[in-house]
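Incident log, entry 3
Record: Xylose isomerase-like TIM barrel domain-containing protein (299 residues)
Problem: checksum mismatch between cached and fresh output.
Input:
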Amino acid sequence: MTTLSRIRIGSAPDSWGVWFPEDPQQVPWSRFLDEVAASGYEWIELGPYGYLPSDPALLTAETDRRGLKVSAGTVFTGLHHGPDVWDKTWEHVSAIAALTQAMGARHLVVIPSFWRDDKTGEVLEDSTLTPAQWRELTIQTERLGHEVRERYGLSIVVHPHADTHIDTEENVTRFLDATDPDLVSLCLDTGHYAYCGGDSVKLIETYGERLGYLHLKQVDPAVLAEVRAQDMPFGPAVARGVMCEPPAGVPALGPVLEAAQKLDVDLFAIVEQDMYPCEPDKPLPIARRTRSFLRSCGA
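Fresh output:
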């Protein structure tokens, strides 16, 4: 078994069924912090901005007393729309980047906007970008990477995601080939990439120098087949159970972590098992089993 000395394991509010700043179906933030610490994790992400306290002093006190540290914040962007959305985007990004910086984290996970609503399935725009939109996406993402680094000392890591324009191997590699490695790195989410037909180990071996961050997630192949057959939006697919508890799904996480270790750089690998919505008592036992499984992989 490879000792994964360069991989730092964590979890996120997502693994507790948290998708929104406020939602009656979600566990309170204090319970999430209690349970993620009890599961044996040291690192967490901020999750949707406003779920955890946005006051750095309060959040620092709450994480410190549980032995937790923050690895990243998360932002949502629609940068393929071009300069017209920059001011609105920056307003959203800057508050989250400031909290991320204040918590001592160095990464900002950037998720592209959905082309269809993840709750209702309403198609919001074409699922395929025009050449002009691709140019704007790459130009504005590089701008974001530059501004976030200059103003907050953070690195952006772009997260390919189901039902967005950066999803399949074709679109992920097109995006990477068109962006400056000095400004834009990749957050590889193993579950989303498998959901969209990609091979995570192959991507790491081919574009390893672009990998800045990992999300660990698995897909249930049987449920995914149903999702694809029904052209189901991502939200209902998650409710159906398309993202499953490791090691029951794909991809196998051991080979992914070994491929990442071979890059010989320090990487966060944050567990994100999409479970919205879920019963409040469901996440903790899964989180404990998942942490134990990852230890068996050397992490």
